[in-house]
Amino acid sequence: MSPWVQKRVCERSLTRVFLIMEILGSTFDDSVFEESRNRVSAALPAYEPKLCEPLWFCEDGNVEDPLEEQKTLKFRGDLAYKRKQYQVALDEYLSCLSLIPAGNISVKRDVLEGIARCCCHLGRKEEALNACEKLRTDVSNTCHLTCVLQLELSVHEHYRDLTNSISSLQQLCCLHPYHPWYWLNLAMSFQRLLESPGCPERSSTEEEHEKQQGTNNIIRLKTIMCLIRARLLIEILRIQQFSFVLENSQRALQDIEEALHVLQPTEKMLQTVSEVMAEDLNPEKMREENQDGESLSGLYIKDFDDKWWNKLYTKLQEETPDLSMHRPLEETFE
Fold first, then answer.
1. End-to-end CA, the chain
2. How many domains does one find in the chain?
3. Is residue 235 a part of any domain in this protein?
4. Are residues 317 and 221 in contact, defined by beta-carbon separation less than 8 angstroms?
5. pTM (global) more than 0.85
């Protein structure tokens, strides 16, 4: 196409654009087509950046602006927490919390998390959990809920509260069913519960012994269930991994095999558990159910036992009619 023809095509295209703009009531401002020398340049106001010295927020002095006072207290609390001065940090955070406007949810979340962590280190478990509960009231999406659950988990783990740690991990597994590390952590928590002094192998009476045998069997099966689920997920993700991430996955798989070796599940048991825990593990379903950042409005999160354990237990009963939790599992799955 010759230059002259190209010019004519461009002119016709521009004409069509102008006609459409006139029909829609839109036009270009004439100043757009003026020569640059004819345009009036507006003088920009002088910009004077605020200069802050290191640790400027530690300086004593009256701060009249509530927003500046809020920032100062928040930064002081963060610095004190970093220095492990937890009581000082807690005092600063509490003072800051009273100044935060109702609409500033993000800063409020940060400060409440700081309060929870300080109380945890200071041995004030109930106050730490109360701060976590306040955080729950402002939760609006799955990311916020995940942060709250992880914070609660850290408090329970700090006080070696296995039962509540398991509860937090179960909620995380329901919220993120394809997160292998939550499943592995949950499996290890179940295993510690199984090995804890609170689960004796022998009881004083036969009735107590049967009851304890049933409890131990359930915990053992849940441990195996979580280990299998973690193994399946890691094997899926391992295909796309490299370097140290791949090494971590391989190490985790080795830990899972060692844990299963200790629990000694039968081949039949492993096969049944694997079938149940792999039912939803296909790429399409995993993409559809990815809830990262999803609004909690209208989102229904099933209870862990309803979603996983009851399904497995029903399957085990179908395949093993004489299943009994009051005698060793090896006798049932021979």
1. 83
2. 2
3. yes
4. no
5. no
